[in-house]
Amino acid sequence: MKQKLDAVLEKWNLLQHPFYQAWSAGTLPVEALQVYAREYGDFIATLPRAWETLNDAETADEERDHANLWTDFTAALGGFTAPASLPQTLSLVRASDALFASRASALGALYAFEAQQPATAQSKLDGLKTHYKLPQGVEPYFEVHSANWHESEKILRQIASLPADEQADALAACEKMASSLWDALTGIHEATCDPM
Fold first, then answer.
1. N or C: which end of the chain has fewer CB within 10 A?
2. pLDDT tops 60 at residue 62
3. For residues 111 and 192, is the Cβ–Cβ distance under 8 A?
4. Residues 6 or more apart from 28 whose CB is under 8 A from it?
5. Over the stretch 138-167, which tens digit does the pLDDT of each residue have?
6. Are 76 and 136 in contact (CB under 8 A)?
7. pTM, whole model, 2 decimals?
8. What's the rounded mean pLDDT across residues 169-193?
9. Which domains does the chain have, with CATH numbers?
10. pLDDT in tens, 91-134
């Protein structure tokens, strides 16, 4: 099952997205980072619900702490917290709400995010440190997540224990979440930089 899930993620590999590549190269304006922080915050806030669906209160609490780190990241950029407004990020939040409502789809959707997060967090952290002279508070969210593999491993174990039909649901949810994450970055990129 891991091979099938990872094949989906390779198709929607966020490290290959032009927005993250521009971040790594230091070519994103700070204003683009501010929009990203504001728009993506609503999605980050949905993650505890997924863990609650999995009856994992400890990880749900951890994700609430991480959402606070995201708010700190937004504030440190000089941005402000506001509801997502771009169609693609609104679609991501709606997809998250739907996918996080049942166990199998929550597992697949979480895997799409959590399996990519350590690498994307490290890439963003490296970009911030190398190219952006920003105040303290922009890095902690990414520092915490750059080595956070335990969540995706926990998710994989649970997917492996599902019956075959629910594994298929998890795989479909992984695809939906991976494409929604990609589309949200595209919306942010197009709103803040030259169209792709």
1. C
2. yes
3. no
4. 19, 22, 192, 193
5. 888 888 888 777 888 899 999 999 999 999
6. yes
7. 0.93
8. 96
9. 2-192 (1.20.910.10)
10. 999 999 999 999 999 999 999 999 999 999 999 999 988 998 87
Distance from C-alpha of 146 to C-alpha of 114, rounded to nearest angstrom: 11
Torsion angle (degrees, nearest 10) of CA 5, 7, 12, 14? 80
DSSP string, the chain: -HHHHHHHHHHT-GGGSHHHHHHHHT-S-HHHHHHHHHHHHHHHHHHHHHHHHTT-HHHHHHHHHHHHHHHHHHHHTT-------SHHHHHHHHHHHHHTTSHHHHHHHHHHHHTTHHHHHHHHHHHHHHH----TTSSHHHHHHTT--HHHHHHHHHHHTS-HHHHHHHHHHHHHHHHHHHHHHHHHHHHHSS--
Read off the pLDDT of residues 9-45 as tens digits, 9 standing for 90 and up: 999 999 999 999 999 999 999 899 999 999 999 999 9
User: Which residues, including other chains, have CB under 8 Å from residue 9's CB and lie 6 or more apart?
Assistant: 112, 115, 116, 174, 178
| Summary mean pLDDT of the chain | 91
